[in-house]
């Protein structure tokens, strides 16, 4: 066994990426404090070819050195937009036909392994602040709430890790199962 060289990875170029079919998912970052988490969200969104990222509230926006450090250029490939208020953005996304899903620990959450997205669903997946989570008024608007099963003492994952876990699960269920 040997590691592959970069030229063996068959990576597509920026223009091909922008023209490629995207997964019908948008990521909403609700008041994310860490620019490293924002950069990581971009990099993960690029890896799974999602439609767009919405940066809301206090979430930092590119260009910024700290975002770029972890995004590694994904701020150029992934479409993004800033929205001042997550709650208003949710209303807009619902009117555009997106189902709103929050990733949160809530009384009616669905354990991630049990979630079954519809075949023609457009999903807006909302990830919350590192300390306070998703805003309560946004949770109340959601169509569903996803919870990542955890078995240790913390019952908490870094938001960038949560984004990776949830997106991989959705890619597996939407794209790879077809």
Give an overview in words.
- The structure is a single chain.
- By secondary structure, this protein is of the alpha/beta class.
- The chain has one domain (19-148, 155-174): SPOUT methyltransferase, trefoil knot domain (Alpha/beta knot).
- Helix content is 35%, strand content 21%.
- It is built from seven helices and seven strands, in the order αβαβααβαβββαβα.
- It has helices at 14-19, 35-47, 65-71, 74-77, 86-95, 136-141, 159-174, and strands spanning 23-30, 50-56, 80-83, 98-103, 110-111, 122-127, 144-147.
- The protein has a seven-stranded parallel sheet, sandwiched between helices.
- α2 packs parallel to α3 and α2 (35-47) runs parallel beside α7.
- The longest helix is centred in the C-terminal third of the chain and has 16 residues, at 159-174.
- The model has no long low-confidence stretch (mean pLDDT 96).
């Amino acid at each position: 066994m040997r590691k592959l060289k970069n030229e063996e990875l068959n990576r597509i170029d920026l223009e091909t990426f922008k023209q490629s079919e995207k997964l019908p998912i948008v990521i909403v970052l609700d008041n994310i404090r860490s620019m490293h988490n924002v950069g990581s969200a971009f990099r993960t969104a690029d890896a799974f070819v999602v439609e767009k990222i919405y940066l809301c509230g206090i979430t930092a926006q590119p260009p910024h050195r700290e975002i770029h450090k972890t995004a590694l250029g994904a701020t150029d490939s992934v479409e993004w937009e800033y929205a001042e208020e997550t709650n208003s953005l949710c209303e807009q996304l619902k009117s555009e036909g997106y189902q709103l899903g929050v990733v949160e620990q809530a009384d009616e959450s669905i354990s991630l392994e049990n979630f079954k997205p519809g075949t023609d669903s457009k999903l807006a997946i909302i990830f919350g602040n590192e300390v306070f989570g998703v805003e309560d008024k946004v949770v109340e608007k959601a169509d569903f709430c996803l919870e990542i099963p955890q078995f240790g003492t913390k019952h908490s994952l870094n938001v960038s890790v949560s984004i990776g876990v949830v997106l991989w699960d959705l890619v597996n269920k939407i794209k790879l199962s077809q």
